[in-house]
Design goal:
Distance between the termini of chain A: 45 Å
Largest interface: A-B, 22 and 27 residues
Largest sheet of chain A: none
Shape of chain A: globular
Oligomer: heterodimer
Strand content of chain A: under 5%
CATH superfamily of the largest domain in chain A: MetI-like
Radius of gyration of chain A: 27 Å
Order of helices and strands of chain B: EEEHEEHEHHHEHEHEEHH
Largest sheet of chain B: 6 strands, mixed
Number of domains of chain A: 2
Helix content of chain A: 55-70%
Number of helices of chain B: 9
Number of strands of chain A: 1
Number of helices of chain A: 13
Helix content of chain B: 25-40%
Radius of gyration of chain B: 18 Å
Order of helices and strands of chain A: HHHHHHHHHHHEHH
Chain lengths: 368, 257
């Protein structure tokens, strides 16, 4: 049996603080590290592994490491041998770019930051002018890297090292996003010709390994070009990497487009927005936001795929590293060499990943 | 005429919408059958009927969210054909409010309201914002202007959606079950805004099951079933003296609880 009752305003219950053990540092430790015995055991095992791994890595990489010397025989200790860095770092960065001209690469790299800033960050001072600079940047960078206009001409087969990875990677990233968007929209087009072209392009390019595309690029690309035009191998790589990434990008963005409710299209139409305005103002901003993880995933994949340039005879940072590992002066230093190569790639890819997480948070207006 | 404190101007003789011999099929399913309907300027029409009766499809044909196969639809003097120019012209003059609000979640409330005036009507931004604030005040949520739709309750979102449509200064407003997705305590705040709008003399077509609203503001109630208009009358006659068996059955089901 229940007893009927009612509360008056005076005896309504007040708010009170949550129990101390569930909030603050103690609360965090308890819920994240020591919640139940499985969780506690995993925490302890992990701590043990870290305790084994971190000191021995630090010992190898720093404490016991050999920093100077002219060849591998200078390295006698147990630790890493970093003596080669001093001699070879320029090759890792610039490949065979003439050493008296490498300042041009450095300037192009430094100018990259103001060119990217207005697109990647909010409220950049003077961002209206910077956007014009961004538009001009590809031309400026090309002139700096290739020469002309009073600068000594550097053939692109001298490009190499990490500078080649960055050049191909950035060009591919900047080009593949808009092309991917167009292909994704094309795949949804009501006009059969546009739809078929998009589908055939996406499926054909996506269905073939990139390395194959690079091999056959000197057969395929001339079909679309005037007969006498010999194609520069760096441009060839950029075209192929872009085409490849665009096909993936198109599918990632198509996923985003499909996640937009039909009502958004209808509301845009009902307000009199035509197709291009509805897409630009309503649909794409939302679809791209949803697709950010996939887009960045494709960017990261693309960036790492730039190491495949080795198959058409270009030496990117990995190619240079391979050459050095088999050089008699530095034989047997493959661990050190590949750790350095990995660090270069990791720093770029991890930055992209962190940036995308920040961007997602900033754009997350639905649940705020 | 209707029963209550309705001070709105009476409908004029000029037609706002003329629909003649409208037929529509979804594939082989005959969803609208020989619809003939003239709507006068300033007239307020409530359309009701069981689900699947074609009432939503009918008003979605008026701003061409749905294509029809046969018949003639003339909205504000413009005939709806495949001509995109005509379609855009009609959509500029016809506002629509949806059951699921369909606010743009990536834009603030204010930006939702100024988007179409700026991009379709080419209104200067400052002026569009002033108009938007005016209408947000009319739907009684000016203080939410800088929030995102996801931060608002359903009733507030629907009022923003109404304000967003009004910012285009439409001649005709279509409402597609505007309160069906709302919790009961929020229905009233939306209906109040719609009653208010009706009293300004807006031409309105409202698909709804809110019979209180119908009897308070409608000039005409239309009952649809199986893709056709089964009965139409002024609200007094419609509710107190329905003629067709289907209408009687429908009213008994909808008013019984």
């Amino acid at each position: 049996m229940y007893e009927p009752f009612h509360r008056t305003t005076d005896d309504m219950l007040r708010e009170r603080p949550a129990p101390a053990a569930t909030v603050g540092v103690i609360g965090w430790l308890r819920t994240n590290l020591f919640a139940g015995w499985i969780n506690t055991a995993l925490t302890l095992v992990t701590l043990y592994i870290l305790w084994l791994a971190i000191p021995s890595f630090i010992g190898w990489a720093f404490i016991d490491a050999q920093l100077a010397g002219n060849d591998r025989f200078a390295c006698t200790g147990d630790g890493a041998c970093w003596a080669w860095l001093d001699q070879r770092i320029n090759q890792f960065l610039y490949g065979f770019y003439p050493s008296e001209e490498t300042w041009r690469v450095n300037i192009a790299f430094v100018l990259l930051f103001p060119a990217l800033a207005p697109w990647l960050m909010e409220n950049v001072p003077g961002d209206r002018y910077l956007r014009w600079f961004s538009v001009a940047y590809p031309v400026i960078a090309t002139i700096l890297l290739v020469g002309g206009f009073g600068l000594e001409v550097v053939q692109t087969d001298k490009f190499g090292g990490f500078m080649l990875n960055l050049t191909v990677g950035l060009a591919g990233i900047v080009l593949s996003l808009p092309i991917g968007i167009v292909l994704a929209l094309g795949r949804q087009s009501r006009l059969p010709l546009i739809r078929w072209f998009s589908i055939i392009f996406i499926e054909a390019v996506r269905g073939v390994p990139l390395i194959t595309l690079l091999f056959v690029s000197n057969i395929i690309l001339p079909i679309f070009l005037p007969p006498d035009m010999a194609l520069d191998s760096v441009i060839r790589v950029i075209v192929m990497v872009t085409a490849f990434a665009s096909a993936y990008m198109a599918e990632v963005i198509r996923g985003g487009l499909q996640a937009i409710p039909k009502g958004q299209y209808e509301a845009a139409q009902a307000m009199g927005l035509n197709y291009s305005k509805a897409m630009r103002l309503i649909i794409l901003p939302q679809a791209l936001k949803i697709s950010i993880p996939g887009i960045v995933n494709t960017f990261i994949g693309l960036f790492k795929d730039t190491t495949l340039v080795i198959v058409i005879g270009l030496f990117d940072i990995l190619g240079i590293a391979n050459a050095m590992v088999s050089n008699p002066d530095w034989l047997g230093l493959s661990t050190e060499t590949y750790v350095v190569v990995a660090l270069f790639f990791f720093s770029v890819c991890f930055s992209m990943s962190r940036y995308s997480i920040r961007l997602e948070r900033r754009l997350d207006t639905d649940k705020r | 005429m209707s029963t209550t404190e309705d001070h709105a101007p009476t409908p004029s003789e000029n037609p706002a919408i003329e629909i003649e011999g409208l037929n529509k099929w979804y594939g082989s399913f005959h969803v609208l059958r020989d619809i003939n309907l003239d709507v006068a300027e300033r007239e307020r029409i409530v359309i009701c009927g069981p689900s699947g009766s074609g009432k939503s499809t009918l008003i979605r044909c008026i701003n061409r969210l749905e294509e029809h196969q046969e018949g003639r639809i003339i909205v504000d003097g413009t005939r709806l054909t495949n001509d995109l120019k005509n379609i855009d012209a009609v959509r500029r003059e016809v506002g629509m409010v949806f059951q699921s609000f369909n606010l743009f979640p990536h834009l603030t409330v204010l930006e939702n309201c100024t988007l179409a005036p700026i991009w379709v009507r080419k209104t200067p931004k400052a002026e569009a914002e002033a108009i938007a604030m005016e209408y947000l005040e009319r739907v009684k949520i000016p203080e939410q202007a800088l929030k995102f739709p996801g931060q608002l309750s359903g009733g507030q979102q629907q009022r923003v959606a109404i304000a967003r449509s009004l910012c285009m200064k439409p001649k005709i407003m279509l409402f597609d079950e505007p309160t069906s997705a709302l919790d009961p305590e929020m229905i009233k705040e939306v209906l109040d805004v719609m009653v208010d709008l009706a009293q300004t003399g807006m031409t309105m077509l409202v698909v709804t099951h809110e019979m209180g609203f119908a009897s308070q503001v409608a000039d005409r109630v239309i009952f649809m079933d199986e893709g056709q208009i089964v009965e139409q009358n002024n609200p007094d006659e419609f509710f107190n003296n329905p003629q067709s068996e289907r209408t009687k059955l429908f009213l008994s089901q909808i008013l019984s609880h």
